[in-house]
Amino acid sequence: MLKNDLLLRAAKNQTVERTPVWMMRQAGRILPEYRAVRAKMGDFISLVKTPEFACEVTIQPVDILGVDAAIIFSDILVIPEAMGLPYKMIESKGPWFEKTVETKEDLNSIHIAHLPNYQYVIDAIKLTKKELNNRVPLIGFAGAPFTILAYMVEGSGSKTFSKAKKWMFTQNQEAHQLLELITLSTINYLKDQIKAGADMVQLFDSWAGILSPQHYQEFAMFYIQKICLAIKAEFPDVPITVFAKGAFFARENMGNLSCDVIGLDWNMDIKESRKLIGKNKALQGNLDPCVLYSDDKTIIEETEKMLKEFGPVGHIANLGHGIYPDIEKEKAKLFIETVKNFKHTL
Amino acid sequence: MLKNDLLLRAAKNQTVERTPVWMMRQAGRILPEYRAVRAKMGDFISLVKTPEFACEVTIQPVDILGVDAAIIFSDILVIPEAMGLPYKMIESKGPWFEKTVETKEDLNSIHIAHLPNYQYVIDAIKLTKKELNNRVPLIGFAGAPFTILAYMVEGSGSKTFSKAKKWMFTQNQEAHQLLELITLSTINYLKDQIKAGADMVQLFDSWAGILSPQHYQEFAMFYIQKICLAIKAEFPDVPITVFAKGAFFARENMGNLSCDVIGLDWNMDIKESRKLIGKNKALQGNLDPCVLYSDDKTIIEETEKMLKEFGPVGHIANLGHGIYPDIEKEKAKLFIETVKNFKHTL
Q1: A59, A221, B211, B334: least surrounded by Cβ within 10 Å?
Q2: Are A269 and B169 an interchain contact pair (Cβ–Cβ within 8 Å)?
Q3: Residue of B nearest to A170 (CA)
Q4: Alpha carbon of A304 to those of A298, A312, A320, B211: distances in Å?
């Protein structure tokens, strides 16, 4: 039994003693302790692929920052690699794929990911689950299919992902074929994460904001729902969070997804989002990560303002995006503590 | 008298025979004719600074694509340079400033821009106005103050502009001081553009989408309104367009700006935007630039669908963002022609 299950109860819209809190990218460069492990390993991907180290950095923010959840240290690009497209992480530049998907032959050369293609993540989850010793829930995650396609076709990060979008619009059939392969891979992947011990899973649609509302429905939401349904069929009690950064236009439709929590970025007005998404879903977010650059007084004020707007039920406190690596650890801690000390006036 | 004033009438919500059309970044790399001039000049900034060449490439899309407006070939970074921060344009990387604004001394070392700091743009407008011979209106433009601050503090492009945002949040007073200097510079600049012959002006708030709704109001909208009011006081008949990319959350407030046209990006639903912004403003946009990668049939269908949704009054057809440089010229032409041939059923 989990000693602290605030996260899971909040995800299910149940009453909680206080709002649970964690931060996207909490296991990472803001912690000197992470940077020490990273320095030993050399590169980011080796760290992801070594369960002992992935486990160590996953637990660091629980010990150091006091967050209410651990999220497995990994990367959304595990799936492209597990499907047959290995990547490199180039320092201060981001991911880079030697081979991309363009032709029918490229499509035929990749496959649906399954065990043992992503064994190291599963091993890391098992180990972390054991080491955490039920202190807090462990979150598993994957990229949403459109975001994964964007990297597999573009071959790297991009401001517009225009190469990937061009491919989707001109090779419509192939695009859907690839999205289907990614979707099936992601279903396998998340199910295996849950079997290994993940208490909750999150889909990150990091590039959602570059699609038009109509295309988002066709190329993104359809496949997200497919994943949610497949997970729910086998694990009805495991909460699912969908975080589609920039997809403000899709909030109303997100209310209909078979998931439990919708992540909000800091551009999304809380009250308006609640109205659009409906009361059946819990919401996660959404402090502007840049607020953590401010003085302590501002951090406390802005965090409390956010908590009041979300209200006491169905909220998981988080930032509206991953924490920036140059935020001071003490500022992150102040955010976490402010949430934990806050009492809603009823 | 302008031979084709469709743009100006549509901007004022007047009845027009057909919807006017132009494209952001229409004077640019999509045209082989532009690339030829660019090859002669060597670099982008020299092209911006040489009125004869700037004039030539400004008029090219009028001749070649048949657009209903010319927009002066220039860059939003003319203003930082005119204020004392010169920049370089690094091929395939973007702008780079040797000196940025950080300290009080930095703030004291820059000044409000005025003539002759940006003389070359004014000369280019005068020359273009003469060469255009009243065929179509000429649009002048500037970056909106927040976007300009972002570059002046960050020193380059960025995905998050976290350095600039950190500075704004920690140096609140200095941030407002800088925004004020940029605002006054932009008022001078746009007034001089209008005196030189610009028939209409547009403010580009390219990085609007990275601010939270509350910060957008404080750091962006306030200064945009100040510019609109100053222009309107002296030139009440010159239409002003405000295009704040990604600022979906600010649409309702934008309805209250003292401008004539609000630009929409392709994420913004047309009917919802119309409702939020109100009927007093004309709207500009908003085809997903990636649609121009599609086959001809799709381009025609999507363009006509957009035209129907906007309706016959108060719409200036455009893309939802600048055209991507690798779009084929013939596809851009097809978009323009589809708008020009379209008849609204009443």
Answers
A1: B334
A2: no
A3: B294
A4: 10, 12, 15, 19
Structure-token pair, residue B61: 């899309």
Q: Which of B5, B68, B75, B260 is catalytic?
A: B75
Q: Check residue A208 and report its DSSP letter.
A: G
Provide the β-strand partners of residue A138: A70
Nearest residue of chain B to residue A250 (CA atoms): B267
> What is the total count of domains within chain B?
1
| Assigned domain for A261 exists | yes
C-alpha closest to that of A10 among A220, A262, A233: A262
Q: Any idea what the CATH number is for the domain that residue B30 is in? A: 3.20.20.210
- A1 found inside a domain: no
Residue B282 maps to a domain: yes
Are the CB atoms for B248 and B268 separated by under 8 Å? yes
Dihedrals phi, psi of B149, to nearest 5 degrees: -55, -45
Task: Find where tokens 């200095």 sit.
Answer: B174
Indicate if B29 belongs to the active site.
yes
State the smallest CA–CA distance between residue A212 and chain B in angstroms. 5
In terms of DSSP bridges, do strands B282-287 and B315-319 run parallel, antiparallel, or are they unpaired?
parallel
H or E stretch covering A254: helix A251-254
ipTM: 0.88
Q: Which residues of chain B from 33 to 72 reach within 8 Å of chain A, CB to CB?
A: none
Q: Which domain holds residue B239?
A: 6-341
Q: Give CA–CA dist B194/B79, Å, rounded.
A: 16
In the set B151, B189, B216, B223, the catalytic residue is: B151
Residue type, B321: H
Asked if residue B346 belongs to a domain, the reply is no
Q: What span, in angstroms and rounded, lies between the C-alpha atoms of B299 and A6?
A: 50
In 3D, which of B137, B118, B130 has the Cα closest to residue B12? Answer: B137
Enter the tokens of residue A143: 């990229």
| Mutation for testing the A interface, residue in B267, B288, B299, B309 having most A CBs under 10 Å | B267
**pLDDT digits 0-9 by tens, A183-240:** 999 999 999 999 999 999 999 999 999 999 999 999 999 999 999 999 999 999 999 9
- Helices marked H in chain B — which ranges? 6-11, 32-41, 44-49, 51-64, 78-83, 104-109, 119-132, 145-154, 162-170, 172-196, 213-216, 222-234, 251-254, 270-277, 296-310, 329-341
CA distance A125 to chain B (A): 31
Q: Count the alpha carbons within 13 Å of A145 in the hemisphere toward its beta carbon.
A: 28
Question: pTM score > 0.90 for this model?
Answer: yes
Q: How far apart are CA B52 and CA B47, in angstroms?
A: 9
pLDDT tens readout for residues B275-321: 999 999 999 999 999 999 999 999 999 999 999 999 999 999 999 99
For B209, the closest chain A residue by CA position comes to A267
Between helix A172-196 and helix A119-132 the angle, nearest 10°, is 30
